[in-house]
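BUG-331 | component: ligand-complex export | severity: low

The export step for uridine-5'-diphosphate jobs runs without errors, but we want the raw record kept on the ticket for reference. Input record follows.
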Amino acid sequence: MMKILIAGGAGYIGSHMVKQLLHGGHDVVTLDDLSTGYRDAVLGGMFIQGSIADQELLDRMFAEHRFAAVFHFASFIQVGESVVQPARYYANNLVNTLSLLDAMVRHGVKHFVFSSSAAIFGEPHSIRIDEGHPVAPINPYGASKAMVEQVLRDYDRAYGLRSVSLRYFNACGASPDGELGERHNPETHLIPLALQAASGRRENLTIYGRNYGTPDGTCIRDYIHVCDLCDAHILALEYLQGGAASNAFNLGNGDGFSVQQVVDTVSRITGEIVPVIDGPRRMGDPARLVADAKKAHDTLGWKPRYADLDVIVSHAWTWEKRLSTGIWTGA
Ligand code: UDP
């Protein structure tokens, strides 16, 4: 049993991580400022409302608890917003992450698992993106993640802080038991928006561009179940605890689905019509992002449990039905 600090544990992926760690018998402390997360999504362990920017709070927490590791989910995630408000992204995703890392260094906590992103790669140079792909982000969100990865390499060399950066492709899905799911406000992600259009909570879904260089003209993404991402975090920590060096892994299923294919899948799984309207391209969107996750399979022994898009959508649909029937107000 380990005690782990989860920064951003009230958010979408962080809350699933807390649940999974608790299920594994670990001791969890969540730090979240609730700027985008929900207190009721943190299903157990200790919860502290506060910011990773608060050095005094971090000092108190690190003095009080002997954390075996820190998992960091507390970042802003909207690609389009990052293009128009880069300051917000660099301040939170980069500067505040430095604050968290510096507290770890001060208190001698050596293991860090970082939620990085496929957005660090920008426009892909290959059909599938492996770890050898050039890092060339095309939006401030991706740039902020790439910068933290650079910081982590330097902090390892200088301070011996060992880390794994996990480059998520498109996180999606929900807890299979229906207990947790995605609750962004405003929601910007494709699958929950399509499900909201199916449930009637939203009038329609806008497809952002049909003129990309893809077979049906809509963008292609690699959709990866949130619980599979959480599995990778636990494997990454075991990897670090086994004495391995700092590393970075791409996490996806290796299958690309276009926006149109996702809409068709949502329609089929829900049995509902998804009203769609065509809109312009969204700023900062590459045409295609698909992972080559061989390194994570080979090195971490990671094997996604919910690789099928139908399963992902059906878990997310169970959650959307909870939201749309008012069990959560979704405010
Ligand atoms: N997308 C869309 N309509 C929406 C939201 C997203 O067409 O209302 C597209 C978006 O342009 C991208 C894909 O769906 O090509 C996935 O977007 P999402 O925001 O879910 O994740 P991202 O790829 O930005 O991390």
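Assignee comment: Attached the raw record above. The pocket of uridine-5'-diphosphate is lined by residues 79, 170, 188-190, 193, 205-208, 219, 221, 259, 282, 285 (CB under 6 Å).
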